[in-house]
Every structure is written in C-alpha cells, then in structure tokens.
C-alpha cells in the first residue's frame, strides 16, 4: 500500500483536474449572462486547499486557521487576528468583549451608548442592542456615504463610551478626525472593515486604526471562506477577551485538542467554584461558540494569496464605471473617495437625482430585467426597518441624508469576476435609460 502522503498528492492532482473541467471560464453574452453585484472568485488552488483540509478530517479550528490568523495579522501589520464564523459574529465579539468585567472602569455596562450609523448593514448595529447598549445614530455625508464627522462630538452624551462605524462600500471614513474625537473623549473605536479590506487611509490599511476591527469573508467580500470573519486588535487584553467570548466564554485559553497550556489546569480557584475545578470548564463570560472550521480557513489561506490582484481589479473596475458614467451627472450623484484615501471598493454607489426622468426603483427594475444585479445601500435607514421599531436608540440632529439614500441610492458590482465586457454592457444599459427613459421603461 502506498504511503498516505503519496495518495494525498494523487488525490490533490485529481482535484485540480476536476476543478479545471467543472468550472471553466464562461463566455459572456450580453443580455443573457447575469452581471451580479458580487460573487466568489476561485480556482483549483482554493479547491485543492479545501480538499487538503478535508483529508485531515480535523473539522474544528486547526492548522489552517492558525496559518491564516498569522498570515492575516502580518498582512495588516497587526498583532492579533482572531477568526470566527462570520463578519457579523466578528462585530458581535468586538462589542461583547468590551462588556467584560475584566476591563474595570473601561467596561461597557447596560445603558451605555455607542455612536454609529442608521445608514448601514444591520449587524454593525445589532451587537450594540444585543448587549443591552444604546445606539446613537448620526447622519451621513453624500457622496462619501460615511459618517458626518462634525456631528460626532454633538452626539456624545454622559453615557457615550464608544464609536462603531463602517468604511462604507470600502470608502474609508475620515480616520484622522474620528480618531481625534475618540482620543479626546476617551471612547473605544471599533472599525467595521468588512467591506473595505485593502483600503488605505494616508497609505495605512483600514482595520488597523481602531481598538478593534472586523472583517467578513462571506462570498460577497474581498476574499471568501464561504462563511467566516475575523476580529483584529493590537491589544493583548482584548485578544484574550475576544477569544473567550468566541469560545463559550471560557476562562481557559487552550487551543482545540490541547490541554493544560497554563500548567495548572487543576489548581485554579475562581468564582465560588471548588478549588481545583477543571480550568477547561471554568467560564469568565456569558459567551458563544463562534469558531469556524479548518475547512473554511483552508479556503481562506489560498484566497489570501489572490487578495492583491483582487484589490487591483476592484479599483480598476470602479474607475472604469466612474469614467463611463461621468457624462450622466445630470441624472446621478456619483461617489467620491474620502480625501487622503485609496479605497478597495466593495461596490459602486449611484444616487438618482430627484429631478431625473425616472425613479431609483424604475432604474433598478429595468437593470434587473436586463440581468444586471443591483443592491440598495444595505438597510437604508435602519430606524425605519421593522426590526427596530420600539427599540431604544437615540438620534443626534436629523437623518435627512440617510432618508435620502434610502429612497434614491443603489449600487452595482465591481468585484473581480467582472471584466470590461460586463461593465461595457452595464454602461450601455444605463445610458439607454438616461438618454431615452420613456422608450426604455416601456421595454
């Protein structure tokens, strides 16, 4: 019988052959081939890495997760990257860890406030509510679609303890001003970097400015594990807390399959437990199980090698659309990058002007009928969503622009699965409805 390593190599070679046959490059046919806003972009390396992990049959967090955490932290020039099962879970962990009693006077307590946006994705806000904290909503600027920085200080109240905001569609918020406000007022800063992996502000990667930052590896994002997320921090105390909340809330810090890392597993005396109670079954926090599998991490290890090229294509596609829509600004407000930033764009935002000869909904329905995918700017105004009726929150000023984008804004794709043939078709269809709206809308 052949040695296992030889058999594994033969299997992985067959996986490569299978991948090349099963997922060949598809020809684009305008009007017939869908143009999605996002999607997974992968090759045989990703499938082979997944098969490699499968053959290990180590189904929880393992060697690939450890490798990804190390490589990802190195990429961001951060000390710690802590994997979990989704970007939404990463946001939950980032907020939850700040409620730990181990933070002393820095601990967030029930009723404390976190400044955020109503114009965003719900799971940036949900962890605030789930931890019995209070979101304080601030309006956005257009065309950056990021927080109105000048309103942040006005939003600070006696119980405000943190700021948690995303870099909208990959466009960095004004980091200098937000950091200065956070420092001046002794506020925690959580960067939701889920849509902005590879974006830079003053030549420094986003996701490295806050006390904590979060990343998503869902198929729509810059790289994918299928499902998966990550919390990034430079602070050892926060790393330990994030891992505790991720791993059932336990006190023990042993990796899966490991015992007695502390060297005194049966010697601890914690809480009112009996002296020597097994440290593996001692809990510091009311936590969760939000780990990911090594199978997911294996895909991430392969995807991470592709990230530089993915970022390059996203930037090029965004610029291609920006140039192609330049002559239609009487109908649209086009997006603008934040000064001092170089975004790794998640999507291309388009805001339909109120006096355009068509509505936002008419336009996206027309695009949909031509197999061009669109998305709204996430939840629009979250305070108007059914889930948030009757919940406790505070609004500073008004949410005029947030309401405006809820009615007028959508976005189209720039992800690496799209090339010039796709984008030229998108531009052709948008031009058609702009130049002859009555004719186009009848079709």
TrEMBL record:
InterPro entries: DegT/StrS_aminotransferase, PyrdxlP-dep_Trfase, PyrdxlP-dep_Trfase_major, PyrdxlP-dep_Trfase_small. CDD domains: AHBA_syn (cd00616). One of its GO terms (molecular function) is transaminase activity. Its cofactor is pyridoxal 5'-phosphate. Belongs to the DegT/DnrJ/EryC1 family. This is Lipopolysaccharide biosynthesis protein RfbH. SUPFAM superfamilies: PLP-dependent transferases (SSF53383). It comes from Candidatus Blackburnbacteria bacterium RIFCSPLOWO2_01_FULL_40_20. GO terms for biological process: polysaccharide biosynthetic process. The keyword Cell inner membrane does not apply. Keywords: Pyridoxal phosphate. It holds the Pfam family DegT_DnrJ_EryC1.
